[in-house]
């Protein structure tokens, strides 16, 4: 990769599945030669609700050292990948809260021209995965972003089966090898497209 590419991978995860996808995306982006920041959004769920699920409590402990996202992480990036569980076919509110703070960057035109992509998880098959990714794309349109889905651009996509973005069925357990490969490919592809865009604009 001749052009240096900065990647921010911004996610929300309650019990760790989306976090696993985010980690795989970090691996894919770094392998493609990018500088990568992994950032979580702030947890806004009341503690008494979190305490109803042991795995939720444990995941918060396990990821206490992951830095929370700030607007600088978006401004710095050439590529932004967003990860979220699906909530009734939409992104989690925690992620939306952060995205709705980006108005100042949008107003200054600092969100336009970046590459955006998204990944998700749901508890059941077809549990709103595609609609969640498409809902995020609505925001990317407003930002003037370049939306880069994985499509069927790698053999793993014919196994994972979602051209919109990497997705996982949490009810089947932790993300398996195919899903993690798909997340790595998605990030790598986003980096490659961003590098090509940067090369074209600086030529």
TrEMBL record:
Belongs to the WrbA family. InterPro entries: Flavodoxin/NO_synth (IPR008254), Flavoprotein-like_sf (IPR029039), Flavoprotein_WrbA-like (IPR010089), FMN_Rdtase-like_dom (IPR005025). It holds the Pfam family FMN_red. SUPFAM superfamilies: Flavoproteins (SSF52218). This is NAD(P)H:quinone oxidoreductase. It comes from Streptomyces reniochalinae. One of its GO terms (cellular component) is membrane. One of its GO terms (molecular function) is NAD(P)H dehydrogenase (quinone) activity. Residues 7-191 form the Flavodoxin-like domain.
């Amino acid at each position: 990769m001749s052009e240096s590419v900065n990647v921010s991978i911004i996610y929300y995860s309650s019990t760790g599945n989306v976090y696993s996808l985010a980690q795989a995306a970090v691996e894919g982006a770094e392998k493609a030669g990018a500088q990568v920041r992994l950032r979580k959004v702030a947890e806004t769920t009341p503690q008494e609700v979190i305490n109803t699920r042991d795995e939720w409590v444990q995941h918060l402990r396990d990821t206490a050292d992951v830095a929370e996202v700030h607007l600088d992480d978006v401004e710095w990036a050439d590529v932004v990948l967003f990860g979220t569980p699906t909530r009734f076919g939409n992104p989690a509110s925690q992620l939306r809260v952060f995205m709705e703070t980006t108005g100042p960057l949008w107003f200054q035109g600092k969100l336009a021209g970046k590459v955006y992509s998204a990944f998700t998880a749901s508890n059941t098959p077809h549990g709103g995965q595609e609609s969640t990714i498409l809902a995020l794309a609505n925001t990317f349109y407003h930002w003037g972003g370049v939306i880069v889905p994985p499509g069927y651009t790698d053999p793993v996509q014919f196994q994972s089966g979602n051209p919109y973005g990497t997705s996982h069925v949490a009810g089947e357990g932790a993300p398996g090898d195919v899903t993690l490969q798909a997340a790595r490919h998605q990030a790598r592809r986003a980096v490659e497209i961003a590098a090509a865009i940067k090369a074209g604009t600086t030529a």
